[in-house]
Amino acid sequence: MSDCIYIRDLALRTIIGIFPEERVKRQDVIVNVVMEVTSHAPAAASDDIADATDYKEITKQLIDHVEGSSYNLIETLAERCADICLAASAVNQVTVTIDKPGALRFARSVAVEITRKK
What we know:
By secondary structure, this protein is an alpha+beta fold. Helix content is 28%, strand content 40%. The protein is built from three helices and five strands; from the N terminus they run E-E-H-H-E-H-E-E. The chain has helices at 41-46, 55-68, 74-86; strands at 3-16, 27-37, 70-71, 91-101, 109-117. Helix 2 (55-68) packs antiparallel against helix 3.
């Protein structure tokens, strides 16, 4: 059994893509994260944020990074987001999904999903 933290449907804008028109204007991306953490039990027992994984801080770091980035590939963006999550001491594993809405004609979105462990 594992304890997880979910960050769902984080809607951000960034420069992403390989085509010249994608390098000029920010595009929408949707970031979803599942972080497997050591245990929620200490935080649940103490009811103290000091014993919890600070998902607000991780989210802030993700927002700052994604909105300040300029990658060619969503694969690269997913890797960097995973690195941010894994930097938190209690996070043992993370799954990051990056959706790029409208990237393909006739498709709602294109997405890349990666899972990384410490």
